[in-house]
Amino acid sequence: MRLKIKHRTEYHYDMPVQYGLQRLRLLPREGKTQSVLSWNVVVGGAREEVRFSDQFGNDTRLVSIEGDPRVVSVEATGEVETHDTAGVSGPHTGFAPLWLFSHATPLTEAGEGVRELAASIAPGAEIDRLHQLLGMVRERVDYVVGATDAETTAEEALKQGSGVCQDHAHVFSSAARLLGIPARYVSGYLMMDGTIEQVASHAWAEAYVSTLGWVAFDAANGISPDERYVRLATGRDYRDAMPVSGIRLGQASEQLAVHITVEQ
């Protein structure tokens, strides 16, 4: 399937910015699940400082903001040919060793709830246990927009029983690691039926199965990603793979607007 994507982020400031630095992970990489036909990232009101491949293999760019510009924009556009591989993205690559994805992060630290969830998974083959986990996370964490924020942990989302795709990916990864299976967070895009315009990018989890490599699980939708999904970046959790992140110094007040379209 050929997907056309536009992802525009705008920052509006009420006064000159003393200094700001944004980290962009907005360029999808070639792989088993997708071929990038064209892609372009345009930044307005800021200056690109450096670009590099980070420890997880993500295309990363740092852009700085300083002085008078009151509006800073980042727009990524392009077309990607996607392939349905039943969620299998293949062998592990990148500078980060596989064992790193077996360790918890502050956002995925397992508490009593996640431990109980992992303990309830019946014995069996790795892939079967992961599909069990997929169903349980979807059952126990309802998708509710605004129920959580960027700092909500896996344990907190599971305890309150609601969250968004970010929380589903964190809960799944936290429990999978307790089962002895490396897991990671994936940011990207999803073409939704009947909806072109979206307010946010998507996220899901991948687990490393010894016989298959990395396999994706989207607990928010209860499936393994298919040709409707485009992968952007991976990491241990949301903070490692978020498409746009940054810091800002000074007293300027910021307003953020995000506009995303994904269509065939």
TrEMBL record:
Domain Transglutaminase-like: 157-221
SMART domains given in the database record: TGc (SM00460)
Name assigned to this protein: Transglutaminase family protein
